Amino acid sequence: MLSMALRTFRRDWNAGEVKVLLFALTIAVMAMVAIGSITDRVHRAMGESSSAFLGADYTFESPRPIESAWIERGLSGGLEITRSKSFATVLSKGDNFQLVSVRALGGKFPLKGTIEIAEKPFAKGVVQQAQPKAGTIWLEPRILGILGVEVGDKIDFGAIQLTVDGVIVAAPGQASEVFNVAPKVLINLDDVQKANIIQEGSRVSHTLFIAGKPHVRDSYMMWLKSQKNPSQKITGGKEGTPALKAALERAETFLRLASLISVVLAGVAIAVAAGRYSQRHFDYSAIYRCLGMQIRQVHKLYLWQLFMIGLLGSGIGLALGLGLQSLIINQFSDFLPKPMVGISLAPVLTGALSGLVVLLGFALPSFLQIAKVPPLRVLRKELLPRAMSSWMIYLLAIGVMALLMWWQSQSLLLVGILLAVAVVTYLLIRLIAWFIFRIGVWLGKRGSLAVRFGVGQLKQYPAFTISQISAFGLAFIIMLSTVLLRSELLSEWQSQLPEKAPNHFLINVQEQEVEPLEKLLEASNVSTEGIYPMVRGRVVGLNDMTLEEALDENQQRVGAVRRELNLTWMADVPEANKVTKGEWWSEADVADERAELSVGEELAERLGLEIGDVLKFSIGGLEVEGEITNLRSIQWDSFQPNFFIIFEPGGLDGFPASYITSFYLPIDDKPVLNQILKQMPTVTIIELDSIMEQVQSILDQVTMAVEFIMLFVLLAGIAVLYAVLQVSREERLLSATLLKALGARKKFIRASILAELVLLGVFSGVLGVIGGEVLVNILYSKAFDIDLVLHPWYWLWVPLISVSFIGIVGWLGLRHLLNQPAHQVLREY
User: Radius of gyration (Cα) for the chain, nearest Å?
Assistant: First the structure.
């Protein structure tokens, strides 16, 4: 049987019958291997970039000393681990004092990324990759002005003196602590014990910076996660800052979606190609049955065929996919995340195995039909095999599709969305088929003879027509969704970090300093994002109950109820906020005995707060209550001042407040900061330049990765469209040849073929734009947290592109064949 299968395969290869199916499978495997490998490499490279932002792959923080056995376990496994201690203390020089946040480092720092140290404030830094030497200290720029010191001077640090050895320009991990009031300093861990600065009862945060090979690191972190208690915290690279975390999560979702797209494209191409292959072999099967072969033997013969097609197609697709991803990565290396990591085995094997599974799921039903052809078909061509149950075919295809989607994406949400859209698409296809019939009747009465003939071709084979529209439409749905998602993601990221986003914050501004500060900034042509009051307060009660009575154990662990919050009052909704429930107060409202409150919806959800709940706050030993009248969504990644809780104007009257503001300041205007410090020495300046540069750099890399993957998906979609056109090529060739044999002119044949292709393009384009709008808006809402939006221009452009592509490619594939003599083509049939 194997030798017969080989001879049959060789005959089909020479006749070209197996090439279309092999081409579809090769394209499918190539797309899955290339997309899978590229997305895997880009994903891991983005992880490396975000780790550089954190200073390590992971950090482990604990309020008490970390067990040495835990550290030894990681080190013995080959991981790099740097210990550190963080605490607050006071630095002094003469009569000048400053509260600072100290990070004492006990080894190489950072493990990922770099730290920049300058010789004077607000100067360009030099890259370092080590902790400060024993006896030295690195300071943030503002500390030098407050203490009146320069690089090389000594300052008092507990029982010892440290030499100022540099000024911190940029350091990993700054973003997560950017609004800590105390400026940050870095010292050597050995100096902590010498300074005798940590006493019993001192609040110290113990941190491990962890990096290493992914499989060793991830295994260690899983073990560490199982050992830690609720007071200890593990942070990954992408969680270093809200802006970076949101961008990377959306990019990862997009890349997972790209993997799903490759699966869908593969299924469409193989299903169409396998259907046509099986129909072309009905006559062979009937002859085999007449010669005495049993159904079981015919089944075995064509299953061997399927196996050989799968083996050859997967092998070629695997080789082409690996070569293509390597070529593209090298060609576009300047635009992709750095450092770009090497290829891993998982996406390669996944792509190859996925190709075989897709082949079985979508081609097996068609191949099983071949053996069921009745022997009488050799005399009566209209006899067809008994069709399998439609439900069986659909369930098999959907089951295989769902399994592969989950395997590729590991996201049940994305799988559910795409399968739901697939069902909607099927219903749309049936509706469009009905429209084709009605329009065919209309054109049959009004169109030219060539147009009527072209429409008649579509009506003559309704099942095949629907298959073509389905394949074309799904390809356009996928490509349109990819383009729209890419555009919306890039728009979101650009709005997240606009060209002149605030890069400086001023905090600890006193009420009497607000007016002089406004005048100074105005004279320097610096525009602020508004100056907001801030009152430190702690939530102590809810609805006349203590927090212990009102909240469960998990809610009591929420950080917002375990520490003081920055409270404020405002007349208008902040720019980066949106009221999602309830109503904002009007200007006419005046705080009565119980003020109105606006609460961030995330905090409200975690604490179970609702409109009408009453919160009690303790502020400087005094208590004040407020009733929740609205909830807000907060864009924490906006680089603007944001607050969990906002009072209505007048709600915090009588409580001392400091003020906060933010503004954009070009690097050439940095001397303005010195003027502010001279006039208002107690004001704290927080510079975000280096943080924003890091975020922008990673966002740029993510953007290029998304655009790059989008282009590759478009190319894969175009390849599938071409494969479907190749499948229908023979039918159109035979039809054109028959017309030629009956005396039709080339002009008539050309017009009828173009009419058929144009109609296919129109209906496929309409299906693509409807399905694309539905799919992309579901993804906006469920997967990317983006507001719904319609794209009216695409309703014009997608059908036009569909008509152009299908018409041009279809015609180019047939043009030269029309010049062949009719008898030569008919002899092959």
Answer: 34
Residue found under tokens 């309704």? 462
SS3 334: helix
Question: How long is the chain?
Answer: 829
Q: Is the whole model's pTM more than 0.85, yes or no? A: no
pLDDT tens, position by position, 732-748 = 666 767 766 666 677 77
Nearest-angstrom CA–CA distance, 200 and 310: 70
Give dist(CA 691, CA 53) in Å, integer.
9
- Looking at residue 107, the DSSP 8-state letter turns out to be S
Q: Are 397 and 271 in contact (CB under 8 A)?
A: yes
Query: Which amino acid is it at 480?
Result: L
CB 639 within 8 Å of CB 493: no
Q: Where are the domains of the chain?
A: 2-48+246-495+696-827, 83-205, 528-663
At 135, the amino acid letter reads: G
Q: How far is 139 from 342, CA to CA, in rounded Å?
A: 38
Measured distance CA(150)–CA(92) in Å, rounded: 13
Pairing, β 184-188 against β 96-105: parallel
* DSSP string covering 398-462: HHHHHHHHHHHH--HHHHHHHHHHHHHHHHHHHHHHHHHHHHHHHHHHHS-HHHHHHHHHHHHSH
**Alpha carbons 157 and 792: distance in angstroms, whole number:** 65
d(CA 33, CA 799): 30
Q: What is the 3-state secondary structure (H, E, C) of 200-223?
A: CCCCCEEEEEEECCHHHHHHHHHH
Tokens linked to 133:
């030497």
User: Is residue 18 within 8 Å of residue 9, measured between CB atoms?
Assistant: yes
Task: Answer left, alpha or beta for residue 264, where phi above 0 means left and psi between -120 and 50 means alpha.
Answer: alpha
584-643 pLDDT tens trace: 987 655 555 678 999 998 888 888 889 999 999 988 778 888 999 999 988 776 667 788
- Which of 402, 53, 30, 409 minimizes the C-alpha distance to 252? 409
CA 66-68-73 angle, to 5 degrees, is: 110
